[in-house]
C-alpha cells in the first residue's frame, strides 16, 4: 500500500470512528478527544484510543507530534467524549522509562490499528530501550480526572 493510500485509509477510518463516537458508540474503546487550539482558542476534536493501565488512564500519540499533542502541551485541560457522555481531565506528559510500560501495553492493544505509524520493528515485544526511544516521537500522557 502506498503512502497516499495509507493516508487516505487512515483519514477514512478516523472519520468513521469519530462519527461513531459522536453517536455514542465506542469502536474498540475509542473516544473523541476535545482540545482547545493553542492559536485559535477554538475546540478541536480527533479520535483517540485511551488506555487504562494499573488504574490510570493514558493517551499515546501514535502519529507523533500532531496538532492535538501541541495543543495539549499548551493547555493540558482536555475532554474525552463518547456520544453525550464526556469527562474532563488534565493531561500530564510521561517521559522516558516511566512511559515504557504504557507504550508496551498500548502496542499490545492497538498495534493492529496504529503499528504502521511506529518505526519498523517496534512492537510490544521490543526492548525497554527501544520503546523508550520511540516515546520522544510518540508522546504519552497520563490523564487525571478533574
Task: Outline the structure in words.
- The chain has 146 residues and is of the alpha+beta class.
- It has a single domain (3-145), classed as Electron Transport, Fmn-binding Protein, Chain A (Pnp Oxidase, Chain A), CATH 2.30.110.
- It contains four helices and seven strands.
- The protein has helices spanning 3-22, 67-74, 96-114, 128-135; strands at 31-36, 43-48, 51-53, 56-60, 77-82, 85-94, 140-145.
- Helix 3 crosses helix 4.
- The longest helix has 20 residues, at 3-22.
- The radius of gyration is 15 Å and the shape is globular.
- The termini are far apart.
- The model has no long low-confidence stretch (mean pLDDT 88).
- This is Nitroreductase family deazaflavin-dependent oxidoreductase.
- InterPro entries: F420H2_quin_Rdtase, Split_barrel_FMN-bd.
Amino acid at each position: 500500500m502506498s503512502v497516499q493510500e495509507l493516508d487516505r485509509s487512515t483519514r477514512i477510518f478516523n472519520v468513521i470512528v469519530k462519527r461513531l463516537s459522536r453517536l455514542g458508540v465506542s469502536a474498540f474503546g475509542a473516544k473523541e478527544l476535545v482540545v482547545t487550539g493553542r492559536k485559535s482558542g477554538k475546540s478541536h476534536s480527533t479520535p483517540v484510543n485511551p488506555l487504562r493501565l494499573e488504574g490510570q488512564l493514558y493517551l499515546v500519540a501514535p502519529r507523533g507530534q500532531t496538532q492535538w499533542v501541541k495543543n495539549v502541551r499548551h493547555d493540558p485541560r482536555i475532554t474525552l467524549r463518547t456520544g453525550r457522555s464526556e469527562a474532563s481531565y488534565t493531561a500530564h506528559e510521561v517521559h522516558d522509562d516511566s512511559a515504557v510500560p504504557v507504550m508496551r501495553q498500548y502496542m499490545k492493544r492497538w498495534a493492529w490499528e496504529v503499528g504502521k505509524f511506529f518505526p519498523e520493528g517496534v512492537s510490544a515485544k521490543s526492548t525497554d530501550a527501544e520503546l523508550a526511544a520511540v516515546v520522544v516521537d510518540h508522546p504519552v500522557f497520563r490523564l487525571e480526572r478533574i
